[in-house]
Write a structure and sequence with these properties.
The complex is a heterodimer of chains A (about 290) and B (about 350). By secondary structure, chain A is α/β, with parallel strands linked by helices. Chain A has ten helices and eleven strands. Chain B has about 350 residues and is mainly alpha-helical. Chain B is globular. The chains are: A alpha/beta (about 290), B mainly alpha (about 350).
């Protein structure tokens, strides 16, 4: 099985007024067809920039320097023109953002925005046909009054409803890779769990590969087949989800797991950021083809 | 009742109340300022009886409240009285001079929106690059100087030193254009007279541009600021992540949400041009209502003053009404809210 996404030795530097700061120090990651891979780390560890590099968005910033290999289904993304790369967005790669309500445009109806997404694959798709396809897609995310939803503006729908809409949009054009950046973090926990379950079922059925970005280990354990733990721009541990959760090998992974608040109280322990063990070399769990 | 209709009804009601208030205020002020209108109108050689006769005809000896009653009764019949300056009904004078001013202000409004908004959009999409800096400096300059300064400078530059545009007036006198709407740009087209249309266009351009400069600057600055803010919103990142073309994002997905907050201010600027037109019309000898207004104020021509102020207030209110409706049309939150706007 070939990799849907392969990232090799990815470096990212930002040029600022006070010199250059390196954000990613050689991140390597691979996702195979139909696989759900989680990239886990605290905020500022480099998860979200990695996603935006895959989309080619970060490269458009004048002060960002990106180097490293990027391959989508075997094709070298770095050899694409900016226009060709843009052509992949919304078709071969799609993305789900943190807050569904604010990631939908407030002054256009869901139907209009959905049509625009569908036209990425089918330019010139008439609105009527787009609405019909959007309706079918909304049914697949358990929205049954789709006519009302397509006519509605995002502010007229609940966060959970918008999240379903966004999931339907993300899968509308049958992407080979779906990037989910902290999906549903802005929603309440039960709605988040419901929509993640929905997303899980849908990608499983369609065989879509997922890069799942999260800081929430509980969610990752439910969702992902394999996990990459990232700390300060370096992958510190990788392996099948079960293996990592059973025997976290890296000091940082253990600290991350310990930082999950427990219902028994006591509060989360303070992760010690100065811990030198966090900078230990990567721990690799074999198995699961890793 | 649909929300938009309800909004319209409410705004119309408020506008009528404002108009009634304006009429009382200007009526009171016009009576309080010193000088006898009858004496001014009849001139120094008129006899005391003649002045007294005119005072009686104008109800000037009645209490102010009674005079206002006469005024309202006449107004409801569409009669604003006779101008002591032109000796014609004020309504006729206004019908003659208003179209020139409206044409000037509307054309300036078109320039403001047609130049200001695209400049702001372009500036925002070029954020931090040289076109952005240039547009920001130029638009600040535009906002900073009042329109009569621009009028004088533009006239000097483009009508005097470089005689590209005619220096004054609405149209070259040799053209005979049948008056239909009073808008020369439209009347010349209706007459099928292309040369006259171009002539009228050349006449209106400089005064309209002078009037519009600060509005253009303001519109560009506001649009830029709102669009820069919108560009940081997650829905724009999503649009980019879905590969929507940059031009389409700028012109549609970032522009529409940004336009809503800009529009209120643009509407106010547009209405303010009605006031600025007084000065610009004076500079360019534009035969509009503003020049008429100045002339009648200096002659204490009560009926004409009140008529002019009322009609300008009404225009101001109509412009605001249109802007409110536009905003309601653009902003689904207002259109779909149960209580209408705010």
């Amino acid at each position: 099985m070939s990799a849907v996404l392969e990232i090799r030795d990815l470096h990212l530097r930002f040029r600022g007024h006070s010199g250059v700061s390196e954000v990613l120090h050689g991140v390597s990651l691979d996702i195979r067809a139909g696989e759900r891979v989680a990239l886990v780390g605290e905020s500022g560890s480099g998860k979200s920039v990695t996603a935006r590099i895959v989309l080619g968005l970060l490269q458009e910033l004048p002060y960002a320097e990106v180097s490293g290999g990027l391959f989508l289904e075997g094709a070298d993304l770095n050899r694409l023109s900016r226009r060709q790369w843009q052509g992949l967005r919304g078709t071969s790669i799609s993305m789900i953002f943190q807050d569904p309500t604010s990631s939908l445009n407030p002054v256009f109806t869901i139907g209009a925005q959905f049509a625009e997404v569908l036209r990425r694959r089918d330019p010139g798709l008439p609105r009527g046909a787009a609405d019909e396809r959007a309706g079918a897609l909304l049914r697949s995310v358990s929205i049954h009054d789709h006519a009302r939803v397509l006519d509605a503006y995002p502010f007229q729908l609940s966060g959970g409803m918008n999240q379903r809409v966004v999931i339907a949009m993300a899968l509308a054009n049958h992407p080979s890779l779906l990037i989910a950046d902290e999906p549903g973090t802005a929603l309440d926990v039960t709605v988040q769990a419901q929509t993640l379950k929905l997303m899980h079922d849908l990608v499983e059925r369609s065989g879509t590969a997922v890069l799942f970005i999260s800081h929430n280990l509980g969610v990752v354990r439910e969702f992902a087949d394999r996990v990459f733990v990232i700390y300060r721009g370096r992958i510190v541990e990788r392996g099948p989800t079960a293996a990592i959760f059973e025997a976290p090998g890296h000091a940082y992974t253990r600290a991350l797991m310990a930082a999950v608040p427990r219902i028994t109280g006591g509060g989360p322990p303070e992760p010690n950021d100065g811990e030198t063990a966090f900078l230990d070399p990567m721990v690799v769990h074999e198995g699961g083809g890793a | 009742m649909p929300a938009v209709l309800r909004l319209l009804a409410r705004r119309l009601g408020i506008s009528l109340i404002v108009l009634a208030g304006v009429s009382m205020l200007i009526f009171g002020i016009a009576r309080v300022i010193p000088g006898d209108p009858a004496r001014i109108a009849l001139g120094p050689n008129a006899t005391g009886e003649q002045v007294a006769g005119l005072r009686q005809a104008l109800h000037l000896d009645d209490p102010v409240a009674v005079q206002y009653g006469h005024f309202v009764a006449d107004l409801l019949r569409g009669d604003l009285g006779v101008s002591l300056y032109t000796n014609r009904p004020v309504t006729l004078d206004i019908a003659q001079f208003l179209p020139a001013t409206l044409e000037l202000v509307l054309f300036a409004g078109v320039l403001m929106v047609g130049i200001g908004l695209p400049l702001g959009m372009w500036s925002a999409s070029q954020r931090g690059r040289w076109p952005d800096h240039l547009i920001r400096v130029v638009s600040l300059l535009g906002v900073s100087a009042p329109s009569f300064v621009w009028a004088v400078m533009l006239m000097l530059m483009f009508a005097f030193f470089l005689p590209v545009f005619p220096i004054a007036g609405r149209i070259t006198d040799s053209f005979e254009i049948t008056r239909v709407t009073g808008f020369l740009l439209i009347d010349t087209l209706l007459a099928g007279n292309g040369a006259a249309f171009v002539d009228a266009l050349r006449h209106i351009f400089l005064p309209a541009f002078a009037l519009a400069v600060s509005g253009i600057g303001q519109a560009a600055r506001l649009t830029r600021a709102n669009m820069v803010e919108t560009y940081d919103r997650p829905y724009i990142e999503m649009a980019r992540a879905y590969g929507f073309p940059a031009g389409r994002i700028a012109a549609k997905y970032a522009f529409k949400p940004s336009l809503i907050p800009s529009l209120t201010i643009i509407g106010l600027d547009f209405a303010a041009m009605l006031g600025n037109a007084f000065l610009v019309e004076a500079v360019f000898a534009w035969p509009g209502l503003s020049r008429y207004g100045v002339a009648v104020i200096l002659r204490k021509d009560l009926n004409a003053i009140i008529g002019t102020v009322l009609i300008i207030s009404a225009t101001f209110l109509i412009v605001n009404l249109i802007v409110d409706l536009l905003i309601a049309f653009l902003n689904p939150r207002i259109r779909h809210s149960e209580r209408g706007a705010r």
